[in-house]
Design a protein that fits this description.
The chain is globular and about 65 Å long. It is built from 12 helices and 11 strands. The protein is of the alpha/beta class. The model has no long low-confidence stretch (mean pLDDT 97). Strand 2 (13-18) and strand 3 (24-29) form a beta hairpin. The chain has 2 domains: 2-213, 2-enoyl-CoA Hydratase, Chain A, domain 1, CATH 3.90.226.10; 217-284. It has a 7-stranded mixed β-sheet with strand order 1-2-3-4-6-8-11, with helices on both faces. It has a 4-stranded mixed β-sheet with strand order 5-7-9-10. The chain has helices at residues 40-53, 77-81, 88-107, 125-131, 158-165, 168-177, 183-189, 201-213, 217-230, 235-252, 257-267, 281-284; strands at 2-4, 13-18, 24-29, 61-66, 70-72, 112-117, 120-122, 134-138, 142-144, 181-182, 194-196. The longest helix is centred in the middle third of the chain and has 20 residues, at 88-107. The structure holds coenzyme A. The site of coenzyme A has 15 residues, from helix 2 and strand 7.
Amino acid sequence: MATVDTNFNYETIKIEREGKGEGITWLVLNRPDKRNAMSPQLHADCDDALFQLATDPETRVLILTGAGEAYCAGQDLRLFFRGTDNAPRQRFEAAQNSHSWRWSRLSRFPKTTIAMVNGFCFGGAFTHLIACDLAIAADEAIFGLSEVNWGIIPGGVVSWNVTQVMNHRDAMYYSMTGDPFDGKVAARTGLVNFSVPKASLREETLKLAQKMSAKNPATVRFTKEGIRAVRDMTESQAADYLAAKSDALRFHDKEGGREVAMKQFLDEKVFRPGLGNYIREEAKA
Ligand code: COA
């Protein structure tokens, strides 16, 4: 059961906590009557919330989702586009915030991020969907690179984003036709990890969040940073970077996971690394 955290007061989003001490925080886009379309205010709210939550000790996993029937219907055509067409300063500010939270802050968020796609997901929403480390969709969710349908290209960095997760044919097909597709297709294209019936979406998302929340946070952070960073490197750069990253992890890992786990496997024989996580003192407490 999630409860709204009233320390975080925003006009267009809600911050909710799952249970007590679970380390799971929900960031809910909360303009359901507008299908959670992204207004300039929503961009400012998300940008601030992600900045605060990055160092929030109660957040070990962040789940991004939408209120009501939609995940997010993309940029708000009225408020983001038409509303700032003749207001360069407001357009600049909205565009800066829009890029900052959807890509910079989210793709570099120091804890696990999961997108839970509960319904409509269009256009600019693909950026924050892809910025999340993991993504689960309802089978019934409707996705669309709808830009071509109304005379624009998948801008911001949407075109760049889709090429990171979708194969070339799917990226071409769905961006050129603008055809909508469901959660099962989204999973097949690599846009989400998997899809489940809408009735079990929340439960399955929470299971994944709980699994990630129980892991060593330093190892999770360094792992996700490593995977993202090496994509743009040559093999020799990656090898050098990963060697340094491994050493840095041993400095940052306050619970010394590597040594604890080796002792549990090799000496105490109480766990098998191939089959699950080592026994963490924190998790036992
Ligand atoms: N920008 C601004 N307003 C939006 C919006 C968007 N991206 N998406 C939905 N809304 C608003 C509608 O204008 C409507 O407002 P109103 O009640 O004041 O008239 C309200 O949200 C509900 O939308 P409606 O179209 O009636 O709901 P629906 O459930 O029948 O359809 C969608 C939902 C998402 C399929 C449809 O609203 C849509 O196509 N939206 C645009 C999606 C898109 O192409 N986004 C990409 C932008 S880059």
